[in-house]
Specification:
By secondary structure, the chain is of the alpha+beta class. The chain has 2 domains: 228 residues, no CATH class; 223 residues, Aminoglycoside phosphotransferase (APH), C-terminal lobe (Aminoglycoside 3'-phosphotransferase, Chain: A, domain 2), CATH 3.90.1200.10. It contains 13 helices and 18 strands. Helix 12 runs antiparallel to helix 13. The radius of gyration is 23 Å and the shape is globular. The protein starts with a helix and ends with a helix. Bound molecules: adenosine-5'-diphosphate and the ligand O=P(O)(O)O[C@H]1O[C@H](CO)[C@@H](O[C@H]2O[C@H](CO)[C@@H](O)[C@H](O)[C@H]2O)[C@H](O)[C@H]1O. The site of ligand LMANGFYV has 15 residues, from helix 10 and helix 12. Keywords: ATP-binding, Carbohydrate metabolism, Glycogen biosynthesis, Glycogen metabolism, Kinase, Nucleotide-binding, Transferase. It comes from Streptomyces mangrovisoli. It catalyses: D-maltose + ATP = alpha-maltose 1-phosphate + ADP + H(+). GO terms for molecular function: ATP binding; kinase activity.
Length: 464
């Protein structure tokens, strides 16, 4: 452990975690953002504990990084367990308005007799975070950083967003939005790295980070724990808009085309801001081997995939064959998990992209690897398919039209038309659909038929 944070993992932190242990075992697996669903939590170890408001007062506030011990997922090697960021509030009694935040009543230990809860639901702790960011505070191993050119106004009223999220977000006075990352790893996080790079490159399609939080803990590199950015007021997200238009039987191709243009602009800016590389035979083999490994692991985890494995595998082999024949591809940094829900349409009509974290279940190094931009394009094509499925009959034609319009828009804004490389696009779409099968099986089993329908199509046809 680095000396800087040695004092954060204190005896009191260890005692605190011991007293919370039984409550957290029950509470953590129920959280939408908990990544280890389907496997019991057998214990916790402390990575860091920092007191933000003193314990035992009217309101105590504890920042914890804890590792959840679990048996490994099917096919995965045993590891130390995922590290989660928790902001624990502590009161003698919880007011009724905070009932949804309840973690439990502590029977013994340093907080005995107190009630602990997820403090992000509570305005006061949320204000404490914003104050610390404004002041660029250093508390224990926590580093609250701010872009010195951007001010944070006082008196912004916080409200937690509740929704389908991998992390937790608080909106401050409709001016700023704070994303507290839940499953955290040490190292450069693309959710901060890429928006900072895009802001430096003058790209206005992505909100520029105003402030961020890092922690020095048990690893040589700090953990990135959260990012504050301007809140796009009055924005509608692409998923809601698409569903609304579908329900009305309205055409969405103009928006799909605009989304294609926005994506190409962000890709162009990223290619200018960060290094690009050429992928030859050896690198493409690694890439297609990765796709194959993910397919095999997915088929182990979700048996419904089995019948389609040979057909899906052929999509990856076709790409490996092209590479063996001498085709090369340019790779660059990209969004990494692009779908309609990551696109915001501002009241001006302009589209913005958010959430550059990448696929949360993948290791950081993999998420930061340059890849052909077809990966993001494939993510969006899958998203039109998802939207169409939610609408039921007639959605197929709608999705095809949106997919075509998106690719045209992408080409109009200076990107290469993704349809000119169908083998690459099919391989990435297949990889994404396989990822979605695992994601849905784990998080939203009712949605599993959506990616499974795509898997059936992709396994039996080579048409995009
Ligand atoms: N800058 C922003 N302006 C307006 N709304 C935003 C902004 N950033 C995020 N949101 C809203 O918050 C939600 C969650 O943000 P996101 O970054 O996708 O979190 P997660 O990684 O947890 O999925 C988005 O779907 C969007 O509705
Ligand atoms: O938004 P996140 O970064 O948390 O991404 C994860 O969750 C998404 C769902 O919320 C999931 O996206 C899948 O469902 C969407 C509809 O809800 C659809 O538009 C996407 O195309 C589909 O992939 C995403 O895969 C996952 O990483």
């Amino acid at each position: 452990m680095s000396e800087a944070l040695a004092h954060s993992v204190t005896t009191s932190g260890t005692g605190l975690l011991a007293s919370l242990d039984p409550l957290l075992r029950e509470w953590l697996p129920r959280q939408r953002w908990f990544a280890g669903k389907g496997r019991p939590v057998t214990g916790f170890s402390l990575v860091a504990a920092t007191e933000l408001l003193p314990a035992g007062g009217k309101l105590g506030l504890h920042h914890l990084l804890v590792r959840a011990q679990q048996p490994p997922a099917v096919g995965a090697p045993a590891g130390p367990g995922d590290c989660y960021q928790l902001l624990i509030g502590e009161r003698e009694a919880l007011p009724p308005r905070l009932a949804p935040a309840l973690i439990g009543h502590v029977p013994e230990g340093p907080l005995a007799g107190h009630t602990v809860y997820d403090a992000l639901y509570d305005p006061r702790p949320a204000e404490v975070l914003l104050e610390a960011l404004r002041a660029r505070a250093r508390i224990g191993g926590l580093r609250f950083e701010r872009d010195p050119r951007q001010e944070i106004r006082e008196g912004l009223v916080p409200r937690l967003i509740t929704g389908e999220q991998s992390n937790s977000s608080v909106v401050y006075g409709d001016r700023l939005i704070w994303k507290l990352l839940r499953r955290v790893v040490p190292g450069t996080n693309p959710d901060l790295e890429l928006p900072l790079a895009l802001a430096r490159a003058g790209c206005a399609r992505v909100p520029a980070p105003t402030a961020w939080l890092t922690a020095e803990a048990d690893a040589p590199e700090p953990y990135v724990l959260g990012v504050l950015q301007p809140f796009v007021q009055g924005a509608a997200d692409g998923w809601e808009l698409a569903l609304r238009e579908l329900a009305k039987g309205e055409d969405f191709t103009a928006e799909a085309r605009a989304l294609g243009r926005a994506t190409a602009e962000v890709h162009t800016a990223l290619a200018r801001a960060l290094p690009t590389v050429t992928l030859g035979h050896a690198q493409m083999r690694l890439l297609t081997d990765g796709m194959t490994e993910r397919l095999e692991a997915a088929a182990q985890a979700v048996p419904a995939l089995h019948p389609f494995v040979p057909g899906l595998y052929s999509a990856f082999e076709a790409l490996a064959d092209l590479a063996a024949e001498g085709t090369t591809w340019t790779a660059q940094r990209s969004h990494g998990d692009l779908h309609l829900g990551q696109c915001l349409r501002a009241p001006s009509g302009e589209w913005m992209l958010i959430d550059f974290e990448g696929e949360p279940s993948k290791p950081l190094a993999e998420r930061r690897m340059p890849q052909p931009v077809a990966r993001d394009v494939a993510g969006m094509l899958r998203s039109f398919d998802y939207a169409a499925h939610s609408a039921g009959t007639g959605g197929g034609r709608w999705a095809s039209a949106c997919r075509a319009a998106y690719c045209s828009g992408y080409a109009e804004a200076g990107g290469r038309d993704p349809r000119t490389d169908p083998v690459l696009l099919r391989a990435y779409e297949t990889d994404k659909a396989v990822y979605e099968v695992v994601y849905e099986a784990r998080h939203r089993p009712d949605w599993l038929p959506v990616p499974l329908a795509a898997v059936r199509r992709l396994a039996t046809t080579d048409l995009i």
